[in-house]
């Protein structure tokens, strides 16, 4: 509940900061889940303590969101070597690319003995030799999130900083599932904040009709309640694949409410409000970015339809 409120509040003042820090919080939440799991080596708790005590930032380089590609199929590749793996590839966009202390990401290892290729997670220090940042983000909208390209060229990652994922045929393991649930909650809260900032400008106008204000209130409250339901589930219930199905429905429903609230706010502010302040166009544009984060609703249409009749959610 506090997560939704805090991310929303940050986004009312700086949507870019909210989006950037959402990636950090998502990465840390995933690392925290790993530290509590049976896969943990104890090293994870030491990393979490260092990140918190030294105020380090962790960027996220997981889902690509490329057309026609599964969000759990990494484009970055790795090969085994003594004591670790050698990593090559790039992630774009990658938020916090200019400020990160660590890069959290997934990568693909070649198949062994004719089997499927293996996916592993890694936490890579940003100053590691071979990690470079290059311009990519070409719009002013959310430019402060530092979402540029991170390239990895023959980067060595110690085995201690990696953990295997179990994503058999598109099915998610528990670590991935919890990570995705956290991501849907955090990132959608950011866009709710942007829509709230736009609506605040409408509420501050004395001549706005009660009908418009009530409609705005309904849209914003709908999105808030949907996100708070995810937060309550994370806090009080055991997470499984059905949790992600619920989180995705909540995100897409909140997305629609956010879009409607933004459109209604722009219309209520009118042409003069649009012309005399850059905020109206900027915040409206930010709200349109909510559907861009993977997994998109269109890409999951078949998977969600199957999940609705009780089948496991698969992000093939």
Automatic annotation (TrEMBL):
Q: Which residues form a coiled coil?
A: none
Return the protein name: Putative isobutylamine N-hydroxylase
Q: Name one GO molecular function term.
A: acyl-CoA dehydrogenase activity
The answer on whether this UniProt entry bears the keyword Flavoprotein reads yes
Listed PANTHER family: ACYL-COA DEHYDROGENASE, ACYL-COA DEHYDROGENASE FADE28
Sorted alphabetically, which keywords does the UniProt record give? FAD, Flavoprotein, Oxidoreductase
């Amino acid at each position: 509940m506090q997560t939704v409120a805090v991310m929303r509040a940050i986004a009312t003042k700086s949507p870019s900061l909210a989006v950037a820090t959402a990636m950090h919080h998502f990465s840390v939440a995933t690392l925290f889940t790993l530290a509590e799991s049976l896969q943990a080596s104890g090293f994870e708790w030491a990393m979490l303590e260092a990140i918190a005590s030294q105020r380090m930032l962790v960027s996220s380089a997981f889902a690509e969101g490329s057309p026609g590609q599964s969000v759990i199929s990494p484009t970055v590749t790795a090969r085994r070597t003594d004591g670790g793996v050698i990593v090559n590839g790039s992630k774009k966009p990658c938020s916090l690319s200019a400020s990160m202390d660590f890069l959290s990401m997934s990568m693909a290892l070649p198949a062994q003995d004719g089997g499927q290729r293996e996916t592993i997670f890694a936490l890579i220090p940003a100053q590691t030799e071979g990690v470079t940042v290059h311009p990519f983000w070409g719009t002013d909208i959310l430019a402060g999130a530092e979402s540029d390209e991170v390239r990895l060229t023959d980067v060595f990652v110690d085995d201690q900083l990696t953990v295997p994922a179990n994503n058999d045929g598109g099915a998610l393991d528990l670590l991935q599932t919890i990570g995705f649930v956290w991501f849907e909650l955090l990132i959608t809260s950011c866009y709710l904040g942007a829509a709230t900032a736009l609506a605040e400008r409408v509420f501050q106008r004395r001549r706005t009709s009660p009908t418009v204000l009530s409609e705005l209130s309904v849209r914003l409250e709908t999105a808030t309640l949907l996100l708070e339901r995810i937060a309550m589930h994370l806090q009080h219930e055991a997470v499984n694949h059905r949790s992600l199905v619920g989180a995705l429905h909540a995100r897409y429903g909140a997305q629609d409410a956010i879009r409607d609230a933004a459109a209604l706010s722009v219309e209520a502010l009118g042409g003069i409000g649009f012309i005399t302040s850059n905020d109206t166009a900027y915040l409206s544009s930010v709200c349109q970015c909510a559907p861009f984060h993977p997994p998109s609703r269109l890409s999951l249409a078949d998977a969600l339809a199957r999940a609705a009749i009780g089948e496991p959610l698969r992000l093939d």
